[in-house]
Predict the 3D structure of the following.
Amino acid sequence: MSCFSGCFEWAQPEAGKVGNFKVCVCGGAGGIGQPLSLLMASNPHVSELCVYDLTLAMVPAEGVATDLSHLETKCKVKGFALDKDDLPRQKLEECLTGCHLVLVPAGMPRKPGMTRADLLGINAGIAKNIVEACAKFCPQAVLGLIVNPVNSVVPAMCELYKKRALDPRKICGVTSLDIVRANKFVHEITGAPLDTIDVPVVGGHAGTTILPLFSQVPAMKGVSADKIPALDKHVQDAGTDVVNAKGGKGSATLSMAYAGAKFANAVLSGLAGSDTTECAYVMSDVSELPYFASKVTFGENGVKKVHSIGAINDYE
């Protein structure tokens, strides 16, 4: 058992349903990528981890991989690095071939005063290069995009997959941090045990598109309705709160790595044969919008079912 088991509560794999999967973290030497790689290397479903980043990263990807290779887990770890002008679709064959899950926290983080839209021009290009390489080398892998703005990057990358006659439902926007935050905030105001709280967060992954469905949470039954708008805003602005608190020297890296690992574990558990549900931003028909965040059940082929929003109150 990993010494990290008590630090991060993985869903315990069902008997006989522990995977041996290959995972790649693209941007694995960055602020999100390093702790996310640590959590992936300690996941019981992961037998091989690839850490990819650019040679200009402050910490070499090979160094991160060597560090993680010393953990007392079954996972083998290898690092890969490209120069900034190299194209992943030409250079990452060994890294991506055979991957079951590719997590992409690569890209520029937000700084004070920046919106997610400000990041689109830069980060969409970074995502495109990686997704093109995945389309070539691991087209059956599930892609978890943590690249902001998720609301814009995910639809663009799904269209790229469609043009290559690949399944766009392999591409998921990771919105788990919204759920993690909502769960924690409900715990703080109600005192309810965290393991009894699971707030569905639907819509998108930016500002007012983030809609926590507190009406579906039993622990919130005693909370006055007039407190909900402020709680919504607390969840919606939590990322900005972290950016401001770090004074321009970082964004929500550690909590995002935790949430990214939570999403990854849901995917890997599903691939191993234990259907697992987690909110994500995916191609969807549960609303009038073609892409929407809601509960998604992951199975042996990735996305198995995109769930409806469920019952909501007039305010929601």
Observations:
- Residues 145 and 173 are 5 Å apart (CA to CA).
- The mean pLDDT is 94.
- The longest strand covers residues 46-54.
- The longest helix spans residues 120-137.
